Amino acid sequence: MRRHRKVKIVATLGPASSDFATIRALFEAGADVFRLNMSHGTHEEQRARYDIIRKVEAESGRPIAVLADLQGPKLRVGAFADGPHDLADGQAFRFDLDATPGTASRVQLPHPEIFAALEPSAELLVNDGKIRLRVENCGADFADCVVTAGGPISNRKGVNVPDVVLPLAALSDKDRDDLEFACGLGVDWLALSFVQRPEDVIEARELARGRAAILSKIEKPAAVRAFSEILKVSDGIMVARGDLGVELPVHSVPPIQKRLVRACRAAAKPVIVATQMLESMIESPMPTRAEVSDVATAIYEGTDAIMLSAESAAGAYPVEAVATMDNVARSVESDPTYREIIESSRQAKRQTVADGIVAAAREIAETTDISAICAFTQSGTTGSLVARERPRVPIVAMSSEERTLRRLCLTWGTHCVLTPELERFKQAVVNAAKAARDFGFADETNQIVVMAGVPFNVPGTTNILRIAPCDERLIYRTDPE
Questions:
Q1: How far apart are CA 58 and CA 61, in angstroms?
Q2: DSSP state of 88
Q3: Is 262 marked active-site?
Q4: Over the stretch 308-346, which tens digit does the pLDDT of each residue have?
Q5: Candidates 5, 49, 217, 407; catalytic one
Q6: Are residues 59 and 177 in the same domain?
């Protein structure tokens, strides 16, 4: 099985997509990565989903990536004594640490770290920004505010604090438990929520101990400001537009998305564009035209992956949502304008031998009659570097490390193939030619580019580029032992 597109699709699993038949159908419709949302469901439920994914993987013979998305610290108000209350514009309202049930004029905010960071004129957002309040006066255990945009407030509604960097760890106690559980399962990626600073990512990496790659979710203004430093210590990025659109002016999100995608591509690190991509398909079998345009825009920008959340986890049409993304991707990538945009946004980066080799591979493939680029990669770096070039021809990423191939399932354009451990370059060429033929990327009359490193099975040694025939008889006739 091969995909006829380059961008990858991430599908979130949930109540609507927890059985074998549905997960198999999602994969066949086009899902390359499955997301386990640790905010919902028990460990037992997540384990059952993970086991099904691996069963689908075994039956299909193709690597599948699993991403565990950690909840992160959730800031919420307390409970109210008499049910919901309507806050009116201009009225006074207090947040404090008092656990007494709330009234129309106050409610508990059980997060002293918020009060420690607040200053007068700071803004507090409640219920996904539907209610907005401006801090007039504050102390270690209270914040007196004025409502600037009113609305109904009720028990346990979420709170956002966009104006300040909160002294909060990105990992709560629940997140630490979930991280250890997910790593024990064998997930390939860990998504870290509400990152504010690079230290948040470093902490998660230390806890993961190399068992999973770390993907930082950019959903806080502080993360946007510190993005360069966060990117350096992350293995991948998610542009999580939900909270980002709450804490920042909504019109600022599209240019931020474009900048982050380009920065990730330049760094050869995968990036996911997420949140509300096909939101209407939670209830409708057809998306809106605006949603289709949103998905298309992310693909034109060169993102590695596009993600479905509630559409596939809890919606009425999970398989149709994946199929819609697949169709949009194929349509966009067949548009000549797509190739013009991708190539005009390519940023030359020539710092290492591997950088030079992957750039040469792309140039050779695009100026001669080459059918595919076959890259042998131990750690995944070479596969990511080839993908950064966004070549016109297919990328076949080959490795004896199954974990490496699963992680590369998130990376643009990579078709991942498991190989035995190799000792000689001729073996690499023969395996590459066979894979290109088996998966329909080439036939015996075609040529491919083969990249590898000698000595084999050592990360970071990419140093050979060979143009090779796909006819094994020619390989044995022309290649020395």
A1: 5
A2: P
A3: no
A4: 999 999 999 999 999 999 999 999 999 999 999 999 988
A5: 217
A6: yes
Rounded to a whole number of angstroms, the distance between the first and last alpha carbons of the chain is 32
Write the DSSP string, 107-137.
EE---HHHHHH--TT-EEEETTTTEEEEEEE
- Quote the pLDDT of residue 7: 98
CA pair distance 41, 60, nearest whole angstrom: 27
Cα 39 from Cα 56, distance rounded (Å): 24
Active-site entry in 12, 275, 303, 381 = 275
Residue 229's Cβ-count burial label (10 Å; 0-12, 13-18, 19+) is middle
> Is 76 known to be catalytic?
yes
Name the DSSP letter for residue 74: P
Residues with Cβ within 8 Å of 450's Cβ and at least 6 positions away in sequence, in order, are 374, 376, 428, 429, 432, 464, 465, 466, 467, 468
Q: Residue 88: pLDDT above 90?
A: yes
The CATH number linked to 442 is 3.40.1380.20
Per the structure, the complete domain to which residue 148 belongs is given by 85-160
CA distance 238 to 189: 12
State mean pLDDT over 43-63: 97
35 is catalytic: yes
SS3 call for 287: coil
Please report whether residue 221 resides in a domain: yes
- Residues 6 or more apart whose CB falls under 8 angstroms from that of 235 comprise 189, 213, 214, 215, 269, 270, 407
Q: Is 212 helix (H, G, I), strand (E, B) or coil?
A: coil
H or E element that contains 270: none
204/298 same-domain check:
yes
pLDDT at 374: 97
Transcribe 354-379 into DSSP letters: HHHHHHHHHHHHHHTTEEEEEEE-SS
Which pLDDT belongs to residue 361?
A: 94
- Asked if the model's pLDDT at residue 481 lies above 60, the reply is no
Is 275 marked active-site?
yes
Domain count, the chain: 3
The type of residue at 259 is: R
